[in-house]
Amino acid sequence: MTKTHYIQNDLWSEHFASCPVITLSKNRLIAEEGAKINQIYYIESGRVKFSSTTPDGNEKIMYIVNKGELIGDLWSASSRPYFMTATTLTKCTLRVMEQKSFLDVLFSNRELAENWMGNLSEVVEFLVDHVTELVFLDKEQIIIKYIYRLSFNYGVETEKGIKINTKMTHQLFADLMGCSRITVSKIMSHLIKRQVIRKEGGYLYIPDMEALKKLVKL
């Protein structure tokens, strides 16, 4: 994972401010794998998961996006079908922009274009890393690397260490890793006992980043 990240946060908020708004409850479908999408969604609030279905019918979560990020932009300049399914993980408020309008805004603003391209690069890097980790690393190493990655995109410096300012349940970790929640709970408990991480109020803290990094080659 590079040390440059392109989480877009409020970069797009003003450009979507006048767009139609939709509110979806938890577990609602936004875009389906194999379908073509002609609209771009801006997440005003909530969290969305991207997943793929295995040949035996099981769902595999690939990555998760939060407030301030876009859905559908990866396919904004092509007519290819979506290769993942986007589903709400929580109640979500979304702003909707037509594809042509999105491209007009994107190509008329250099800052937006540069950040957008950087974000696409990071998504590709993340997906490649994720597949590599699942093939070559054990479950504890995968969790450590994912926590490390979260620290780049959602890390906030506090007196208790770096706070991961987005909540990740054991079930979400399990879904991302393709293992059981019990396995994740055991690994997290082990990391907490070793003081590699702390958990408080549903949030993870990294008291010593160097100690975390030493556990896996980062």
Order the strands across the largest sheet as they lie in space.
1-8-3-6
Per the principal axes of the C-alpha atoms, what is the gross shape? globular
Q: Give the number of helices.
A: 7
Order of helices and strands: HEEEEEEEEHHHEEHHEEH
Residue-averaged pLDDT: 85
Distance between the termini: 8 Å
Strand content: 25-35%
Helix content class: 25-40%
Low-confidence parts, pLDDT < 50 over ≥5 residues?
Answer: 1-6
Compact overview of the structure:
With 218 residues, the protein is an alpha+beta fold.
Describe the structure.
This protein is α+β, with helices and mostly antiparallel strands and 218 residues long. The chain contains seven helices and twelve strands. A four-stranded antiparallel β-sheet has the order 1-8-3-6. The protein has a four-stranded antiparallel β-sheet with strand order 2-7-4-5. Mean pLDDT is 85; it is low at 1-6.
Tag the structure with descriptive keywords.
single chain, 218 residues, alpha+beta, 4-stranded antiparallel β-sheet, 12 strands, globular, disordered N terminus
